[in-house]
Amino acid sequence: MNLKDYCFFGNKPFVIEQFDPAQTGKFQLKNEVEELHHTNLLKMQELQDRLYAENKEALLIIFQGMDASGKDSAVKHVMGGVNPQGINVHNFKKPSSEELDHDYMWRSMRVIPERGKIGVFNRSYYEDVLVGKVHKLYQESYLPDRCKTDKIFEQRYQQIKNYERYLYENGIRVIKFFLHISKEEQKKRFLERIEDDQKNWKFSDSDMIERDYWEEYQRAYHDAINATATRIAPWYVVPSDKKWFGHFIISETIIDTLEKINPQYPAVTRERKERLLEFRSKLLREEEQSSF
Hints:
CATH architecture: 3-Layer(aba) Sandwich
Mean pLDDT: 95
Shape: globular
Strand content: 5-15%
CATH topology: Rossmann fold
Low-confidence stretches: none
Number of domains: 1
Number of helices: 11
CATH superfamily: P-loop containing nucleotide triphosphate hydrolases
C-alpha cells in the first residue's frame, strides 16, 4: 500500500470534496486484507515491546472524525492486541468545569504518553478548532475579550503546530488520523444504532444536532488539516465508509511510524553479561541438587 496517497504533511493541499471516503485502494473485499491486517497486528506487538523496553521515545496517536466515523472501532480493532502495560487510551468528551478553567490544551497535556509508551487520543485538542469553530464556542468562553478575535483559530493552528514540534523535539512522535466518512454512510450507521436494541445506547440526541452542521464540519476539517499538517506530525486521511479498509490503513501507518523509530532492546554491558552467566550457573546447580 502506498501510504503517500493518504498522508498530508504540507506538501500538497487536502481538498475534502475531492477525497472519496468509500475508496478501498486495490482491494475489493474485506477478506483480501484480513491476513495482512493480522500480520500488522503481530508486527505492532513486537515493535511496541521494543519501544517499551528501550524507553526512549513515545508515540501519540490521535483519532478525529465525525460522529459514527469509527473512532471507537479503530481503537478496539487496531490497538486491542498490544500489551496494555505499554498503551494509554484517553477519550476526550465535553470539557468539565475544571478543564474549562484552563487553557484548551491543558487536559491533553496532562496525559501525554511517557517514554516507551503509546498514547491514543479518541478526539483531542483539535476539538477546539473543530467543534469550537463550528459553534463559535470561544465567544461564550471565559477568555478575556482581547483573545476573542477573528484571528483566534489561525492563532490556535499555529499554537498546535508549535506544540507538536515541541513534542517531537522531546522524543514524542505524533500521528493524526481523520476518519473520513460520507454523509450517506453516517446516516446508515445512525439508523443501525436506532433500529438495533443493542446499539441504542450509542445514539444520542446531539448526534442529530451535529449532523445539521455537516457542511460546516467538513470545512472545519479541511481548514484544520491544511493548517496543521507537517512532516513531523502528519495527518492521515482515512477513507472510512468501509471500516475494514480504514483499519488496515491505520495499522499500516502505525507500523510504518514504529519502524522509523526503530526501537531496540537495550544491550547489556560485558560485565552485566558475565553476571547473568553467574546467575544461570547458580540456577542450574539448584536443579542438579534437587535431583538427588
